[in-house]
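Memo to structure team: turn this sequence into structure tokens by end of day. - J.P.
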Amino acid sequence: MTATHAPPTGPLRTLCIASFVNTGLFMLVYGLGVLSMWAMRGVPFAEYEAIFIDRFGAITDPAMRGELEAILLLLYEDGATLMLILFARTALRSYGVLGMWRGRANAFHIYALAQLAGIFAPHLVLPWSYLGITGPLAAVALTALYGSLRKHNESVGA
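Reply from structure team:
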């Protein structure tokens, strides 16, 4: 039997609700992304590239044109895999939040694992040069916030 804690109250409840909205929206976005990136593989790369170059080539700095083309190739070849990784990470985050909502003791660990995996797993596809600082800091900050609010919720509910 899974150990349980008090259901969320106060700020933890608000954070859980915000996370449900966030993960629900992004599961929809990444789910559609998997399907659309998979469907784009049926289009020859030259046509795929032309769609984006025609639209974004004019607003892209000529010095950045090579980078735009590299990103397009990466998305064409591995976009569906990337979207699937992001979908799985978001689904696991959602599962962790749902567990915290239900008061399950191990749910925070599931959420924290999903956040940590969410920092590194996309780089199975993406080059490490795309690892920014904002995303990992936000993931760590939200995990710390959940952890502290969960501890506070347990001490108030005990």
